[in-house]
Amino acid sequence: MAPSLSADPADRIIVALDGMAPEQALRFAAQVDGLRWVKVGLELYVQAGPEVVAQLREQGLRVFLDLKFHDIPATMAGACRRAAALGAELITVHACAGSEALKAAQASAQEGAKAAGQPVPTLLAVTVLTSWEEQRLQQELAITQGIAERVPALAQLSATAGIGGCVCSPLEAAALRAQHPQPFALVTPGIRPKGAAVGDQARVMGPAEAIAAGASQLVIGRPISKADDPSAAFALCCSELVV
Q1: Catalytic member of 39, 68, 103, 226
Q2: pLDDT at 167 over 90
Q3: What residues have CB less than 8 Å from 103, skipping those under 6 apart?
Q4: Would you call 68 a catalytic residue per the annotation?
C-alpha cells in the first residue's frame, strides 16, 4: 500500500537529511517551511539511532527510512518489523535479497506497525542503485543483463512478492509505471532541479519530468539541504511541479 498523498506538491518531495549530524538534521527539518517528508539514511541512523525517527515524527514529519535492508529472510523480517514500529512510512529493502526475504519483510512490517499502533508502511525495493553505470555494473558484478533489463525484472520480482513499490532512477520511471500502475509507488532519487549540479548521481532528471514519467515521490537532497535558503529551494522545487 502506497502512502496516502494529497495533490499538494509538497507531499511529492522527500528531502534527504544526508550528511547532517542529528541536531543539525532536526534543526534543518524544523526550519524548512512547508516540509512534509524527510529521508533518514544510513549515516544519520548510525549516528543518531532510532530516536531520530521518533523526534522527526514529533515535529509532524513523515519519515522515509532508507536503510536498504539486504539479509537472510529472518533478519530482514525482524529489521522491517522494528522499522515499522518506529512509524517510518517508507522503508527500503534490496530486491536482490529474493522473493522469500521480500515476502517475510512485507508481512513483518505490517505486523510491526499494527502492534505499535503505527501506520502500515510501504516497503520500497531497490533495484539498481542510481550510482551504477551499465558497463561497470556488468563488469564488476558479472551481470549479463543491462540496466534496462535488470530493473524491470527486479521490480516484477518485488511486486510479485507483495512489495508496495520501488526506488528507481527517474529514467526508469516511465517503463516501470507502464508495467506497474498506481498505487504501486515509484520513489526516485537522482532528481536535480533546474540549475543544480549533478553530483555523484549518474542518471538524473528534473522534478516535473520525473513526475510526468510516473514517479510517485521525489527524493531531493543537496539542491535543498545545501542551499543558502533551504525554504526557498524547497518552494522552488514545489513550484516546478505545479502545472
Answers
A1: 68
A2: yes
A3: 73, 161, 162
A4: yes
